[in-house]
Amino acid sequence: MNKGRESKPHIGIFGRRNSGKSSIINALTGQEVAIVSPHEGTTTDPVRKSLEIRGVGPSVLIDTAGIDDVGDLGEKRVKKSLQVVATIDAALLIITHNTFGEPEEQMVSLFQKYRIPYLIVHNKTDQEPLSIACSKKIKSKYGIEIIPFSAINPINTEALIFSLQRIIPETAYQRRSLLGDIVNPDNVVLLIAPQDTEAPEGRLILPQIQVIRDLLDNDCVAVIVKVGEAEKFLKIVSPKPALIITDSQAFSQVKNFVPENMPLTGFSIVLASQHHNFRDYIKGTPKIAELQDGDRVLILESCTHQITCEDIGRHKIPNWIREFTGKNIEFDIISGMDQLPRSIHEYAMAIQCGGCVFTKKQLAGRVQDINVDIPVSNYGMAIAFMQGIFERAIRPFCKRK
User: Fold this and answer.
1) Is-contact 16 103, C-beta < 8 A?
2) Fewer CB near the last or first residue (10 Å), C or N of the chain?
3) Which of 172, 200, 231 is the C-terminal boundary of a domain?
4) Host domain of residue 318
5) Contact 27, 62 (CB under 8 A)
6) How many whole angstroms separate alpha carbon 361 and alpha carbon 367?
7) How many CA atoms lie within 13 Å of 220's alpha carbon, on the beta-carbon side?
8) What letter does residue 153 receive in the DSSP assignment?
């Protein structure tokens, strides 16, 4: 449930089995993009559908399983649906037959916990109209008007879309430049990209692509080289780079030949600077130096990928931390939005990757509960700290509001 562009808002659709969630998606998109069946439980896992919302732009609807599913398999489906809440920017809660009970109250509580704006839609009004009693009950408790709707006869689709426009936060679709406030037009920015076994054959990794595109959008001159060519390039280039960005795992080499007066940071830190958790990362990173024998560290990966012996999160960072601290540290590695294998209180700290495939909301939701209880860091910032250049690597972004 990840994506590479942060400018697409994600909208989750929740409701009981056979409440017409998939039918509403079809009505909103004007296409038969979701499987519709009179049988309960047709949607078994969260499924994404893309659409264009006027005034918002490209958006993603997430169709989920029924929140009242039963049985062992049903409980797993409900759990997957509830996990979606931490990743979305807005929500539609679908009810039918004027039924609003414990499952719906649980969903609203989750929306409130994660500060998700939401709408309540009474579907199948062609079968049973929204009652005054149900409308008053919900408005009295939550201060929200219910939107009557019929996916079979969707005459008020425009009203529903207008309501969606109204609740989707602008921050979900207005993309902030990665480096627009750091660099100026015509600046030369040097990108140092080591090519190890984790680099996709014939391609650059996503953070490098995102940074290059952002620099081009800001009328900069982006020069990309491998580590071996970087030192030679710095000696001959004029004007000198206004900023140097390297893959974090090359900090140990790059710091030796980049002059102190040249701003230096990492791709992972550039991405982290965009997220709400950046200040938490700055505060939590020094905890690495306090780790003790037997402590357990949680490694959070955003994406699922083929694992190699050079894997940054699963091999290199754990080994570097053990070497840096001289302590016997244990590690758990979690990919995507998977659940933790143990209580968060059993971890001394967490370290999150750059999150290049997460939306801002997804990353904030991923880190929110964790950061309440334990310190949290970021791959690039953790590596910079262990290489003794932490303050230098975060310096370009510390004046941001």
Assistant:
1) yes
2) C
3) 172
4) 276-392
5) no
6) 10
7) 28
8) S
Do 327 and 355 fall into the same domain?
yes
**pLDDT exceeds 50 at position 4:** no
Are the beta carbons of 351 and 298 closer than 8 angstroms? yes
Spatial CA neighbour of 379 closest among 401, 365, 362, 363:
363
Flag whether pLDDT at 31 surpasses 60: no
CATH number, position 208: 3.40.50.11420
Distance CA 109, CA 96 (A): 19
Residue in this structure with the two tokens 């809660």, named with its chain if needed: 93
CA-based nearest residue to 160, from 173, 145, 175, 171 = 145
Tell me the torsion sign for CA atoms 20, 21, 27, 30. Answer: negative
**Total number of domains in the chain:** 3
| Angstrom distance (rounded) from CA 369 to CA 136 | 34
Q: Distance between CA atoms of 192 and 246, rounded to whole angstroms?
A: 4
Looking at residue 117, which CATH number applies to its domain? Answer: 3.40.50.300
3-class DSSP state of 131: coil
Determine the average pLDDT of the residues in 174-185.
86
Q: Domain holding 340: CATH number?
A: 3.40.50.11410
- Name the DSSP class of 314: I
pLDDT at position 333 over 60: yes
Determine phi and psi for 304, rounding to 5 degrees.
-105, 130
